[in-house]
UniProtKB/TrEMBL annotation:
Organismal lineage: Bacteria, Bacillati, Actinomycetota, Actinomycetes, Jiangellales
Oligomeric form and interacting partners: Homodimer.
Source organism, top-level taxon: Bacteria
Origin species: Phytoactinopolyspora alkaliphila
InterPro entries for the chain: CoA-bd, NAD(P)-bd_dom_sf, Rex_actinobacterial-type, Rex_DNA-bd_C_dom, Tscrpt_rep_Rex, WH-like_DNA-bd_sf, WH_DNA-bd_sf
Residues that, per the record, bind NAD(+): G95, I96, G97, N98, L99, G100
GO biological process: negative regulation of DNA-templated transcription; response to redox state
Name the UniProt record assigns to this protein: Redox-sensing transcriptional repressor Rex
Molecular function GO labels: DNA binding; DNA-binding transcription factor activity
Role: Modulates transcription in response to changes in cellular NADH/NAD(+) redox state.
Family statement: Belongs to the transcriptional regulatory Rex family.
Length: 234
């Protein structure tokens, strides 16, 4: 079974997590016809510190040219190759509810090296339903689906209560790269790479920051009121 190519040894996980940011920035630059970019410009586009960017790229053996910077097209290809995006990764989505539908219909995966190859759901009423040009298969067929499409990466988009069981089954079938969208904590054995996307948690973090901004605004207004009262009373 095909698996995503490993990042070179010695590359910190934090660096690996930032490589897609650099690739997205480079893709945007390439689409604008930019041939070379300085580390400062690339860092600003990616939203990171320039020193951190230079350190990250040095792990890949890319140091740029003094006074010129980085060749956009070459660095774009280099990062794509290192994180395995020059290949065609067949992806399975398990759970074809609203989120599963949305992920299945997202057109941006193909241009980034990912192909939605199969869809699976436990609801027999969804079996045979066509989503994004693919027929939904029943979860009873999961073993056959993984083998038939040589699945490399699985996406869990099931309800929370089903996530762990689905994950366990995927691992048993040899899937070692899993992206979990279910709002549940999922445990995997050593050797399995699990990434979690928790939309509710991210919204809660934004709510926290929004509340703090509102609190700061209220505090400022109160301070202004005090100054105004002093001025009037004085």
């Amino acid at each position: 079974m095909a698996q995503p190519a490993p990042i070179p040894r010695g590359v910190p996980e934090a660096t690996v997590a930032r490589l897609p940011l650099y690739l997205r920035a480079l893709t945007a630059l390439a689409e604008r016809g930019v041939a070379t970019v300085s580390s400062d410009e690339l860092a600003e586009t990616a939203g990171v510190n320039s020193a951190k960017l230079r350190k990250d790229l040095s792990y890949l053996g890319s140091y740029g040219t003094r006074g010129v910077g980085y060749e956009v097209e070459f660095l774009q290809h280099q990062i794509s190759r290192e994180i395995g995006l020059t290949q065609d990764w067949p992806v399975l989505i398990v759970g074809i509810g609203n989120l599963g539908h949305a992920l299945s219909n997202y057109g941006g995966f193909a241009s980034r090296g990912f192909r939605i190859a199969a869809l699976v759901d436990a609801d027999p009423q969804r079996t045979g339903e066509e989503v994004a040009g693919l027929k939904v298969r029943h979860s009873d067929d999961l073993d056959d689906v993984v083998k038939e499409f040589n699945i490399a990466i699985a996406v869990i988009a099931t309800p929370a209560h089903a996530a762990q069981a689905v994950c366990d089954r995927l691992v048993d079938l040899g899937i070692t790269s899993i992206l979990n969208f279910a709002p549940a904590v999922v445990q995997v054995p050593e050797g399995v790479d699990l990434r979690k996307v928790d939309l509710s948690t991210e919204l809660q973090i934004l709510a926290y920051h929004e509340q703090r901004k509102n609190g700061a605004a209220l505090a400022l207004t109160a301070e202004q009121a005090v100054e105004l009262a002093k001025a009037v009373g004085g």
